[in-house]
């Protein structure tokens, strides 16, 4: 007759052996210490054996959890632990551990536990991983991993995603990182549809501060271009040489193009770079002359105008801290 493989109350030693085998098969190899007294279960059923002392000293959540009265374990269970006191065939085994099931997946839990246990950490390469780790570290009140993640977000390739960095930095009150990220967002059109999902993660004050920075740069340059020595919006304009009435429409068109460009890329590098040299509106402006054929005076000093606009852009607010 084939021997039954089902655990049986009449054979507790066999049941325990089978349960331990299943447990070992699912245990993460980096967290399989036989003397660990706590088992953490990820939502994909991977198990992590950790010392309760480590959890208590690195996590406020676990410290509070372990301060609660504990219910004694009276029978082997996949969720409460295993204990063997048999003296026959399994006498050398003494294993007692609680299983605490958590909401995180195995990858997130592995990274978090490596940080608090002093094991090598694989730096996250996406903000999806960063967000998951920050959420878990905040939930379990783990300041150590949060401080480490604060450093990692300033490394490539994460540094190349300034809007995600600004969202994380604003949420956790990392003011220097938030200011740095806000400066990097000046290359972006934050009103574009692809950025809406990230902006929704920001609290009201943070998103308003970012909008204000982008608007302040555009409006600051617009106001400056209406002031002396730039050509203002006067009704009557005269040629500086022959005093014949002229129309500054080429300058107005260039100025309008500059403001539109600042709205989509507030950094202004495309304005003072290729823009003022290669745009059709710029070419028309620098080629504009007095309509008096006998005068043909060039209306705009290209070199001086470029220098003044560069100075204006350099003087605009650069971060949310400058507003």
Explain what you see:
- The chain has helices spanning 12-26, 52-58, 60-66, 106-117, 127-139, 143-152, 162-172, 175-184, 196-199, 204-224, 249-264, 269-278, 280-287, 302-314, and strands at 27-32, 38-41, 47-50, 98-101, 237-238, 245-246.
- The model is unreliable at 1-9 and 73-96 (pLDDT under 50).
- It has 323 residues and is of the alpha/beta class.
- Strand 5 and strand 6 form a beta hairpin.
- Helices cover 49% and strands 7% of the residues.
- The termini are far apart.
- The strands form two sheets. Strands 1-3-2-4 form a four-stranded mixed β-sheet.
- Helix 2 crosses helix 3 (60-66), helix 4 (106-117) crosses helix 5 and helix 11 (249-264) runs antiparallel to helix 13 (280-287).
- It is built from 14 helices and six strands.
**Main sheet strand line-up:** 1-3-2-4
Question: What average pLDDT do the residues reach?
Answer: 85
- What is the succession of H and E elements? HEEEHHEHHHHHHHEEHHHH
What structural category do the secondary elements indicate? alpha/beta
Which blocks of ≥5 consecutive residues have pLDDT under 50? 1-9, 73-96
DSSP, total strands: 6
If you compute it from the alpha carbons, what radius of gyration comes out, rounded to the nearest whole angstrom? 33 Å
Percent in helix: 40-55%
Q: If helices are DSSP runs of H or I spanning 4 or more residues, what is the number of helices?
A: 14
Residue fraction in strands: 5-15%
Terminal-residue CA separation: 84 Å
Oligomer classification: single chain
Shape: rod-shaped
Main sheet attributes: strand count, strand direction, barrel closure:
4 strands, mixed
């Amino acid at each position: 007759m084939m021997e039954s493989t089902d655990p049986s109350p009449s054979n507790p030693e066999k049941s325990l052996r089978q349960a331990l085998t299943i447990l070992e098969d699912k245990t993460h190899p980096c967290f399989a210490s036989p003397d660990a007294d706590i088992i953490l279960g990820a939502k994909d059923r991977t198990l992590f054996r950790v010392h309760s002392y480590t959890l208590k000293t690195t996590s406020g959540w676990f410290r509070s959890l372990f301060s609660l009265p504990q219910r004694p374990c009276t029978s082997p269970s996949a969720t409460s632990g295993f204990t063997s006191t048999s003296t026959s065939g399994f006498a050398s085994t003494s294993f007692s551990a609680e299983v605490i099931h958590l909401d995180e997946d195995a990858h997130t839990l592995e990274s978090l536990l490596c940080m608090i246990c002093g094991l090598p950490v694989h730096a996250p390469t996406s903000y999806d991983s960063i967000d998951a780790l920050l959420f878990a570290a905040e939930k379990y009140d783990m300041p150590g991993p949060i401080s480490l993640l604060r450093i990692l977000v300033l490394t490539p390739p994460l540094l190349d995603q300034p809007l995600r960095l600004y969202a994380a930095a604003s949420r956790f009150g990392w003011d220097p990182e938030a200011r740095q990220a806000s400066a990097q967002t000046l290359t972006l059109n934050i009103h574009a549809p692809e950025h809406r999902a990230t902006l929704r993660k920001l609290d009201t004050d943070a998103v308003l501060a970012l909008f204000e920075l982008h608007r302040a740069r555009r409006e600051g340059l617009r106001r400056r271009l209406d002031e002396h020595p730039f050509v203002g919006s006067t009704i009557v304009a005269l040629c500086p040489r022959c005093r014949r009435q002229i129309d500054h429409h080429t300058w107005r068109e260039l100025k309008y193009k500059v403001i539109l460009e600042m709205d989509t890329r507030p950094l202004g590098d495309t304005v003072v770079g290729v823009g003022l040299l290669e745009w059709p509106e710029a070419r028309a402006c620098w080629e504009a002359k007095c309509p008096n054929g006998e005068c043909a005076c060039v209306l705009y000093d290209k070199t001086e105008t470029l220098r003044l606009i560069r100075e204006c852009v350099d003087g605009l607010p650069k971060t949310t801290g400058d507003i």
